[in-house]
């Protein structure tokens, strides 16, 4: 029954990380990523410390390590790109296992891999511990334009509906013996996309009319206005501040 | 093409973030004109549609398949402003929820995939629809070309960001050929699917296709056996021509800021291509460019010592010169056109 109200990415729980107000978490994650990106890539140990920090947060949030690692797989395309770098970047060459690799390319690959992975891990922790609706409220509290937040909330709310519509169309196509095998079948797929657009647009009009008839005048009422206490801000700031300390050490050492 | 954290350096990320924020702000105002007060629900549903359609895989050849990027499709179906908004929201949600694309690279991603694709596609689409005969087929053909160009244009924009702010020194020529080569192929699939989708929507609900507005024949009434033009509907007509001065000023300021500020941050060291050329001794053979001793040679002002400030200054002067020349040409052309119109009227 609860399906549709909670996103599959969210893991319900009662940890201290779950309890933090969403805008504190958003700000903390953003500052953390900013600090990570501005760390010099030669300070290899600093990235290890960041990983330890994230592991600690995962522990506090009681997210199983397996879940976190599985969701890290999203960055595989860029891992592939990073593995290409040592072969295409010119510069001093080192020989390793019979392969000729370039030193600046290795540094570049390390840079993208380390920073990208830490960024993805931070976002995964955020998405696993924050409910979608409160994430959107948090964005609004962080002064994102309300119209943008409304559009995002409609997208999230109806994303599953539209995706399900698309899946039903796919089932209908397949039950009539259709199987997309090549360029010849693009026409059918495009017609489905066109039908999906018309259905989405018309649903949007119906939703709007239903909202207007219930008194919508361009803004959504905020029912539960979350405010963060000083203690909660301090708690959320623990991650980026300790990361900043590591970063400063990385620059000075 | 989702750029992760740490791929583009911080100054360029910040600059593209500012560009993205400006574009989203402009689109928020523009989208109200495109969708009136229904903006939020409709744009949200269209964003959900884009999100879903990006999951629609179409088979390309044996085993491989591609998926739609959707920038051109959104611009043609719902208009450029709403298109930029929808794709930006999709990218924002992908960044925060699915960790697809870095948070610090959000500006790069939005500028690249939401703004560049949509603006390029829509500009090209409008131009083609104006030139071609006013039929449904020409709308489909224009959307094919618009989508075809928009994808390599985004790849080109990415290469540009990488060139001024990439964290690894890959020779820019390799990045360019790799990115643009792959994305020309992707663009062909994108173009075919976009054109077919637009064609399918036009066949059923031509009124929903923003790019095909004004295509329907005017309503005629038969009054006393004669066809008479019906009174124009009181609905929203074509967007009234607004003063172009504001648009013009915004564009000029943006260009100046980009040329002056961003090139200030762009490293003063030789770029990848020049470096490769220098390493391999290609540049020994090149003869000095015949304007090599002009005061703006090599994107720097001669008597200014600091490489960065001089580069920024040269950028600003370059933009100013382009604007002056461009407006001069435009002014001459416009004058001649009004003159011929007046002459034709007299004859």
TrEMBL record, chain A:
Superkingdom field: Bacteria
Keyword terms of this UniProt record: Cell membrane, Membrane, Transmembrane, Transmembrane helix
Membrane-protein topology: Multi-pass membrane protein
Cross-referenced InterPro entries: ABC/ECF_trnsptr_transmembrane, ECF_CbiQ, ECF_transporter_component
Main localisation: membrane
TM region positions: 43-60, 72-89, 109-130, 233-251
Keyword Repeat part of the UniProt annotation: no
Name of protein: Cobalt ABC transporter permease
Species in which this protein is naturally found: Streptomyces scopuliridis RB72
Automatic annotation (TrEMBL), chain B:
Pfam families: CbiM (PF01891), PDGLE (PF13190)
UniProt subcellular location: Cell membrane
CC terms in the record's Gene Ontology section: plasma membrane
Keyword Transport among record annotations: yes
Domain PDGLE: 245-335
Keyword Membrane set for record: yes
Alphabetic keyword roster: Cell membrane, Membrane, Transmembrane, Transmembrane helix, Transport
InterPro entries to which the protein is assigned, alphabetical: CbiM/NikMN, PDGLE_dom
Bilayer-crossing regions: 7-28, 40-60, 72-98, 110-129, 141-164, 184-204, 247-266, 309-333
Lipid bilayer topology: Multi-pass membrane protein
Source domain of life: Bacteria
Annotated GO biological process: transition metal ion transport
Protein name (record): Cobalt ABC transporter permease component
Source organism per UniProt: Streptomyces scopuliridis RB72
């Amino acid at each position: 029954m609860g399906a549709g109200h909670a996103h599959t990415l969210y893991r319900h729980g009662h940890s201290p990380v779950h309890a933090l107000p969403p805008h504190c978490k958003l700000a903390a994650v953003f500052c953390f990523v900013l600090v990570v990106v501005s760390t010099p890539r030669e300070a290899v140990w600093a990235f290890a410390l960041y990983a330890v920090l994230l592991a600690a947060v995962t522990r506090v949030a009681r997210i199983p390590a397996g879940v976190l690692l599985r969701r890290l797989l999203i960055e595989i395309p860029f891992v592939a790109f990073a593995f290409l770098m040592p072969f295409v970047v010119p510069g001093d060459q080192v020989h390793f296992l019979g392969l000729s690799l370039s030193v600046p390319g290795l540094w570049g690959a390390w840079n993208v891999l380390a920073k990208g992975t830490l960024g993805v891990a931070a976002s995964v922790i955020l998405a696993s511990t924050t409910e979608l609706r409160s994430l959107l409220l948090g964005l609004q509290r962080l002064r994102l334009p309300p119209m943008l937040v409304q559009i995002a909330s409609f997208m999230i709310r109806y994303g599953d509906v539209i995706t399900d519509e698309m899946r039903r169309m796919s089932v209908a196509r397949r039950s009539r013996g259709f199987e997309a095998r090549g360029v010849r079948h693009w026409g059918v797929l495009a017609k489905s996309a066109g039908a999906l657009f018309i259905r989405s647009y018309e649903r949007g009009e119906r939703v709007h009319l239903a909202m207007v008839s219930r008194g919508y005048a361009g803004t959504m009422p905020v029912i539960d206005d979350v405010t963060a206490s000083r203690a909660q801000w301090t708690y959320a700031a623990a991650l980026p501040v300790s990361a900043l300390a590591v970063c400063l050490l990385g620059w000075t050492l | 093409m989702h750029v992760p954290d740490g791929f583009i350096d911080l100054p360029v990320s910040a600059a593209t973030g500012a560009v993205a924020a400006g574009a989203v702000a402009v689109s928020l105002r523009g989208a109200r004109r495109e969708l009136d007060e229904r903006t939020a629900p409709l744009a949200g549903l269209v964003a959900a549609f884009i999100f879903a359609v990006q999951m629609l895989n179409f088979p390309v050849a044996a085993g491989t398949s591609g998926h739609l990027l959707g920038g051109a499709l959104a611009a043609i179906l719902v208009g450029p402003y709403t298109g930029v908004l929808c794709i930006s929201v999709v990218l924002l949600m992908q960044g925060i929820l699915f960790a697809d694309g870095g948070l610090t690279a959000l500006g790069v991603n939005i500028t690249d995939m939401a703004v560049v694709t949509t603006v390029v596609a829509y500009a090209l689409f409008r131009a083609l629809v104006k030139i071609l005969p006013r039929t449904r087929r020409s709308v489909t053909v224009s959307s094919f070309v618009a989508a075809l160009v928009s994808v390599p244009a985004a790849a080109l924009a990415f290469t540009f960001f990488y060139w001024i702010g990439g964290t690894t020194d890959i020779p820019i020529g390799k990045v360019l050929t790799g990115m643009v080569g792959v994305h020309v192929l992707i663009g062909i699939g994108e173009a075919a699917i976009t054109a077919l989708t637009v064609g399918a929507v036009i066949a059923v609900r031509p009124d929903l296709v923003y790019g095909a507005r004004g295509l329907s024949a005017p309503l005629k009434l038969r009054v006393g056996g004669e066809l008479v033009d019906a009174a124009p509907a009181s609905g929203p007509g074509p967007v009234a021509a607004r003063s172009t001065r504001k648009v013009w000023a915004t564009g000029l300021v943006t260009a100046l800021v980009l040329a002056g500020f961003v090139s200030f941050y762009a490293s003063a060291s030789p770029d990848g291509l020049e470096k490769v050329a220098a390493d391999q001794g290609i540049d020994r053979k090149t003869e000095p460019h015949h304007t090599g001793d002009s005061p703006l040679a090599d994107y720097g002002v001669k008597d200014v010592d600091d490489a960065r400030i001089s580069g920024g200054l040269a950028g600003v002067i370059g933009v100013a010169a382009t604007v002056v020349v461009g407006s001069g040409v435009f002014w001459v052309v416009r004058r001649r056109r009004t003159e011929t119109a007046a002459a034709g009227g007299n004859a």
